[in-house]
Amino acid sequence: MTTVHDGYWCETMARSPGAEGEWILGGYRAGTPRLALRWLRNQARRLSDALDPLPDRGPFPPGAVRPADPRAPNPGRIFREWLADLRFHEVQLAALANGRHISVNAGGPDRVWGWCDADVFYSLSCRPITLDVLTDRTEADPQHAHP
Q1: Residue ranges of the domains in the chain?
Q2: Where do the segments described as Disordered lie (predicted)?
């Protein structure tokens, strides 16, 4: 039996043990490691823009958003830093091609559904979709095969 890769499953998740919730924010089946990483990069951009909007950019009026304290937990900043780390992306591409799971994770306190403050952990991940293929098949003897 041989194991082959039949694509790559990518997903974006948010988890909050304190709020007893887990939310799938997106999923994608990629055909190659490079397409998988491209999808993860787009999700990292989406999360970083939503969780840590840059001042004076986006839909907010000038002055409405200020930079966060650099010492504070900031999942958006973590995803933005990962997005800029092209050298590490090559490491992750090689890991996927070799059949390994990759992820980037970040978390911090947040307000969940407007009713509680809780830690929320965000995860971008990708894993190979594996298939076990039978390679040692022997043909049935024709004289003993059923008609």
Answers
A1: 2-136
A2: 50-72
pTM: 0.81
Of 12, 16, 14, nearest to 115 by C-alpha is 16
* C-beta of residue 14 within 8 angstroms of C-beta of residue 125: no
| CB proximity list for 81: less than 8 A, separation 6 or greater | none
Residue 128, token pair as written in the block: 């190979």
Closest CA to 36 of 14, 13, 9: 9
Continuous segment of H or E residues that includes residue 120? strand 116-133
CA distance 122 to 110: 11
